[in-house]
Structures are given as C-alpha cells and as structure tokens.
Design a protein that fits this description.
The complex is a heterodimer. In chain A, helix 4 packs across helix 11. Chain A is 73% helix and 2% strand. In chain A, the strands form two sheets. Chain A has a two-stranded antiparallel ribbon with strand order 1-4. In chain A, strands 2-3 form a two-stranded antiparallel sheet. In chain B, strands 1-2 form a two-stranded antiparallel ribbon. In chain B, strand 1 and strand 2 form a beta hairpin. Classes of the chains: A mainly alpha, B mainly alpha. At the A-B interface, helix 6, helix 12 and helix 15 of A face helix 4, helix 9 and helix 12 of B.
C-alpha cells in the first residue's frame, strides 16, 4: 500500500491555501459540527454555555490584540479599555439612539478603532517599553472616563444594555447567544486570517521584524502602525460590544488593567503572530480560572479556607502560568501544536 | 493658603516615596534594561514583612526594619536568579510580561499569606504633631521625608564612591566594555535587583506607617511610571525629581481638579502628564536620547 509520508505541494495555489491539507479540512469540518452540536448537548447547563460564550468573546478580542502585538510588534496594555469603549458605545447607540444591533456593533467597532488610533499616534516616536507605558496611560485615562462621564456611561453604577437582536430574533439567553457569538467568532477569525495575508498584513510583519528595513523598502511606518492600531481596536470594540449585549450591564471594572494583562497573556501563551495560537491561548486562559474553581470546589470540603483565598490562588496561578510559558515555551501553544503536527505529517517515518 | 501648604507637604511626602520606588525602578532598567512591573509588589512585601515582625513577633522597630531590608535584598537576588536570568536576550515584550506575571504571582502569594484586610502599624513615630507657625505636620510625615532623603543620599554616595556602585554604572553604560574590564554582569544584575527590592521595601514601610497596609499598596508600582518617564527612564536624579514632581502634582490636582470631576483626578493626572511628556519629549527631562544608526 502506498502511504504518502509528508506534505508535498506542487502548485502555488496549494501553497497559498488557507487549509493546507485534506486532513486539516476534515478536522475543521468535524470541529465545526462539534461546535454546532455543543449547545444542543449541553442545553441544560447555563454555566457551561456561559463559559464557552466568554471564550468566544475572548477569542475575538485576543485576535485583535495579536494583530497589533504579535504581527506588528506594538505592545498594548490598553486592550481592556478599548473593549470598554466598544461596550459603552454599543450600549449608548442602542439605548439612546435606538440603532439596530448589527449597526451598533459595527459603529462601536469604528468608534473604538478611532480611539485606538488616537492613542496609537505616539507609536510613531515610541518603541517597545515606552509604547507599553503610553498604552498603560491610555488604559488609566479611559478607565477614568468610564467612571466619571456619568451622563453617557452611568458611572460606577453601570449601564444597562438590552440584549442583541437581529430582525425578530432576540439573543437573550446563553443558548441563543452562543450561535451569535460563534458566527461572529468564525467571521472575525476568517477576516484576521486573510488580513495577515494581504499587503497590510505583510507590511505589519515587516515592521515587526525590522522597522528600519521596512521603511527602506517603502512601507510607510506611521500609516501602517495606525492601521494596525485601528484594526486591533476594531476587534476589541466588537468583542466589547458583544460582551455588553450578552451580560446586560456594563461596569468599569470589566475593563480594568487586569483585563488588558489577561489578553496579553492569552496571546503570549497562545503564540505571538499566530491566529490559531491566539484561539488556543484564549481558550486556555478563559478555562484556567474555571478549572481552578472546579478543583478548589472539590477540595473545599476538607479545606474551607480555599473559598476565601480562591482569588489569591487564581492570581498566583495566573502569574505562574505566564512565567512558566515565557521561560519554557516562549513561542506558546502554537509552537507546541506545530511540533505535534509535524510529527504526524511524517508519520510513520518521523525521522 | 494653609490648606495649600498642607497639601503641598503631603505631596512632598508621597513624592519622596515615589522617588524611592522610582529609584529602584530606574536602577533595574539602567543596568539590566528590564522594565519592572513588580515594583509595587516588592513594596507591598516590605510593608507586610516589617508589620508582621513588629506586631506579631514583637521585634523592636529598628531591628524589624533592618530584618526587612535584608529579607528584601534576598528576595531581589532570588527573583533575579530564578526568573530574570533565563530571560536575558529575550524581546522586550516577553520581559515585560514576565515581570507582570511576577507581580501577579507575588500579589497572590502575599494575599494568601497576609489576607486582604487593611492592617495598621502601631505608633512607631511620636504621635504628637509638630507645629510650624500655624501649620500642623504629623511626625510620621517628617520621618518619611527624612528617611527617603537619607536613602537617596546614601545611594547617590554608593554609586559615586563604592566599587560595586561604580561597576554598576559601568554595566549600565556599556555591558561589553564592563565585562572586558572584569566586571561580572550576572553579579551586577543580582545586586541591582537586590537594591531595587531594598528601596521598595523602605518605601513600603514608610507608606505603611502613613496609610496602613493593604493590597492597594501595589498600585504604587503603576504610579512610578509617570515619575520615571518624566525624569527619563535611565536617569537616577531624574527619577528622584520626577517622583517629587508627580507627588506634588497629585496633591495639587487633588485640591483643584477634584471638585470639578467629583474626585479621582489624582489617579489620572499623572498619566495625562505622562502622555504629554511622551509626545513632546519622549526621553524625559534627563534621559539619554537613543539615536539609532543603521
């Protein structure tokens, strides 16, 4: 029996394909079916659906951050606040201006993109460490606006947001929202996957790898850095908007600096500059606290202290996971995945 | 008029503590090129440890103070050896994330050990306030500024005259040249972390005496950014001056802007200034400008 060992591409079309092999197409189809079947199987468990819905939203926002940080090399510590901008805008557009949901999402994304670009302006002069601090300032300033601009944001009491609805369909339960979130996630992932293959995407990577060389070969740095900030914030805005319509009430604590850090950790653990890595990282980091909760729940019978210090445990594990990944697997889950993939590609002659 | 003076004084006190933390921060950045997001946690560690020594173990304050400094130095060594050394040569974002992870880890551990409620130092400094012509200054404030200034002078002398201090400046200036002169860079990195932890510990003890000790102390770690950016990331006098300026500005904005925004402007004004400084003069007041050549 002739077993083909390894992947051999004979045309450029093959090489450029998004889904490179039949096997990966098969698994992807299976994954899609599983995702569609999931809510029907676990319809009873609101908690499980809630967790998966937050994973979807995390994936959207994390992909946005990875376009900026992983592909363009610009560190942002303000992603959480940008999500907040999206959430508040979307809520405001819907409640006060009465716009339909889909318009709200896009408009929120656009406003967030503009805000992100404004805070991205210093990126022309600032690099690395300085930019990280500048975006931290963006986070603090935006948080201040969320709390103080009571007329629009409702201050620390929060803003009530009606659930999303398209046409006559209202996504007012975990079960219904699942499909909305799934659709948005697939759409945004596909768009991101394609963005990084286009001219701007290539320009982003050129800037990341060596910005002086990029400038010399004719990439306008400022323009593309701003575009990158814009796209990234657009994603954050969409994710924030979905989150707002899902949770129903937006308060400033949802968008503090911890959230920004969490998103950075997702893309680091997933793998900088990798779309599927981002998805893995987002899933991993969203599930981590939930798994911890389950584990500490199991032991809370013997050790009742656990309930009190759960927050502290979560925090230390979060820190530890980041540190361990950075030291032992700096390229993240995506690199691990690739090793496994390569092993199976050459199977059974993996030498 | 008096209330202005009063808030200026508290601004100077808080500023002196910012200056201490900024000093540690710049020290690490200057010699190891690491931005340390865990500076606030180092401060919290010092504050809690000294408090425990004084309250639970009934150690006299000066002994507890010394013990805390030694423990902080050890912690600094330990952190550098265990977490930072494997990261030498990694890109900036990884190192930033590592210190953020470290901050989270330390915060969790501190929380687990000491709980989350606010604790108060026993009256270590005389309680009776001093009066300067109608102005009332609590003695803790005075001691804090005194301590901070003494620390700053000591470190200045250390860098100027001691051989390790000179070696550290050499490493900061040019790692390769320093290495070829027989300076062990690893040792210098470890010392930098130890000193940073010590100054943060001093800051923690001082602020703990003024405000009490709780988890919110770690926010001082973020406040340090406006101070160091204003002064210049790699300038020690800049850090000190930046710390005082930010402290004063905070006090003034608390006084003049808070009525407009119904509070909270203290938190945001330093960061607005940070953005302005970055836009106009990215390398701060005294920082060295990096000129890139191809």
């Amino acid at each position: 029996m002739a077993v083909k060992c390894g992947v051999f591409k004979t045309t450029y079309r093959d090489d450029e394909a998004i889904w490179q092999t039949k096997v990966s197409k098969f698994w992807l189809a299976l994954l899609l079916i599983a995702l569609l079947a999931f809510p029907f199987v676990f319809q009873g468990s609101r908690y499980l659906l809630y967790v998966v819905n937050s994973v979807f939203i995390a994936v959207i926002a994390a992909i946005g951050l990875n376009i900026l940080t992983g592909f363009t090399g610009q560190i942002s510590l303000g992603h959480g606040a940008f999500m907040g901008v999206g959430a508040y805008c979307s809520g405001y557009f819907m409640t006060t201006l009465g716009m339909p949901f889909l318009v709200c999402v896009v408009a929120a994304g656009c406003v967030t993109a503009i805000v992100g670009m404004i805070f991205g302006i210093p990126s022309l002069r600032l690099k690395g460490l300085y930019l990280a601090i500048a975006t931290l300032a963006a986070q603090v300033i935006l948080e201040f606006v969320f709390v103080r601009w009571r007329g629009v944001t409702g201050g620390s009491q929060g803003m009530l947001v009606p659930p999303a609805s398209i046409g006559g369909l209202t996504f007012n339960s975990d079960f219904k929202f699942y499909f909305l979130a799934l659709a948005f996630t697939i759409l945004t992932v596909m768009i991101a996957k394609n963005i990084v293959r286009t001219k701007p995407g290539r320009a982003f990577m050129a800037i990341r790898d060596r910005y002086i060389s990029a400038e010399i070969i004719g990439v306008p740095l400022f323009q593309y850095k701003l575009i990158s900030f814009g796209i990234s914030s657009f994603y954050a805005g969409v994710a924030g908007s979905l989150w707002g319509h899902y949770i129903g009430i937006i308060t400033p604590e949802h968008f503090n600096v911890m959230i920004s850090i969490q998103y950075l950790s997702m893309i680091i653990i997933g793998g900088l500059g990798s779309i599927h890595g981002t998805i893995m990282g987002a899933v991993f980091m969203t599930l981590l606290p939930e798994v911890l909760r389950v584990i500490s729940g199991l032991f809370s019978g013997q050790y009742p202290v656990l309930v009190n210090i759960f927050g502290a445990i979560r925090e230390s594990v979060f820190g530890l996971v980041i540190i361990l990944f950075l030291i032992f697997e700096p390229d993240g889950l995506a690199a691990r995945w690739k090793t496994i993939q390569n092993y199976w590609k050459l199977w059974p002659f993996s030498y | 008029m008096e209330s202005i003076l009063q808030s200026l004084i508290s601004g100077i006190v808080v500023g002196s503590i910012y200056a201490l933390i900024a000093l540690g921060f710049v020290l690490i950045y200057k010699s190891t090129a690491v931005i340390n997001f865990a500076q606030g946690e180092l401060l919290m560690f010092g504050a809690y440890l000294c408090l425990t020594l004084v309250v639970v173990l009934q150690v006299p304050f000066w002994l507890a103070f010394l013990g805390t400094l030694i423990a902080a130095a050890l912690l600094g060594f330990f952190l550098e050896r265990l977490f930072l050394r494997p990261m030498i040569g990694e890109p900036a974002i990884s190192i930033i994330m590592l210190t953020i992870g470290l901050a989270s880890l330390m915060q969790g551990i501190i929380h687990m050990t000491w709980g989350s409620e606010t604790r108060v130092y026993p009256a270590i400094f005389p309680v009776e306030p001093l009066r300067f012509g109608g102005m009332v200054v609590s003695q803790v404030y005075l001691y804090s500024v005194l301590f901070a200034v003494v620390c700053l002078i000591l470190f200045n002398l250390f860098f100027r005259y001691s051989s390790s201090g000179i070696a550290m400046r050499a490493v900061a200036n040019d790692q390769q040249a320093a290495q070829s002169m027989g300076i062990s860079i690893k040792k210098i990195f470890a010392i930098a972390w130890a000193i940073a932890a010590v100054v943060a510990g001093v800051g923690g003890i001082l602020i703990g005496n003024i405000n009490g000790v709780n988890a919110s102390l770690s926010s001082f770690g973020l406040k340090v950014f406006p101070a160091v950016i204003l002064g210049g990331l790699d300038s020690i006098p800049g850090a000190i001056l930046g710390g005082f300026i930010i402290g004063l500005l905070e006090a003034l904005s608390g006084m003049y802007l808070d009525p407009l925004f119904e509070g909270g402007s203290k938190e945001v004004v330093p960061f607005v200034i940070l953005v302005v400084v970055l836009m106009i003069k990215p390398y701060g007041l005294f920082g060295t400008e990096e000129i890139e050549k191809i």
